[in-house]
């Protein structure tokens, strides 16, 4: 302890300089948007690089399970091609289901959080890969989240396990629309609200994206109804949906770009 104190006394001028220099950098970054933007991009680059390295180690030990998933998906795609038809499977997503209004990109999750109230994922793709804010993110089994911020080589995604997100969804069998939200309780379940009580809701029914937004195409799987009840006013159902995705172990994802998004946005803004 005495050696630490002696070190501080001997180098007090230099340490004071570092402290004041740090404060000056902090004030400069906070007061200038340009400097702030550069700092955020640099921070994203550094943290993204660290997460990417850690993810490479983790992926090495998970190769067996991931290869099994990829093998199952390839087998299904081959079956679709051989039969020359498209069959909708409630537990899988097939890009052939969607027309040329959507562009698909592949990416890997290098950091995944699922135990917080507002969970964020980090992907190994960014602006250099044409990834932008508000692109949808899915896996081979269903919906994952929405791109929030991007740097040159990385992007962050607001997970569906995030209390701030709301996604338009519907019952697959009846097309009744509702809003998908998360109550922050379990990573296995998400909640569907605003489904009117006249809808024939049943346990085991499939929930899919509605296509009512410019982010996700219609028909992407979300999960199945686990339980439901009417709200206090007894006008709408409160539905607990068991997710198709295991959000604690997902690694490989698809990023979806709606190529007509800006046209739709401009049309709506000119109303």
Task: Give short descriptive properties of this protein.
271 residues; 5 helices; 32% helix; 31% strand; elongated; six-stranded antiparallel beta barrel; Thrombin, subunit H; alpha+beta
Please tell me about this protein's structure.
With 271 residues, the chain is α+β, with helices and mostly antiparallel strands. It has a domain at 167-243: Rod shape-determining protein MreC, domain 2 (Thrombin, subunit H), CATH 2.40.10. Helix content is 32%, strand content 31%. The protein has five helices and twelve strands. It has helices at 2-10, 12-31, 33-61, 63-83, 261-269, and strands at residues 102-112, 118-123, 136-138, 143-150, 155-162, 167-171, 177-181, 189-196, 206-209, 221-230, 236-243, 252-258. Strands 1-2-5-4-3-12 form a six-stranded antiparallel barrel. A hairpin with a 7-residue loop joins strand 7 (177-181) and strand 8. It is elongated and about 80 Å long. The termini are far apart. Mean pLDDT is 79; it is low at 82-92.
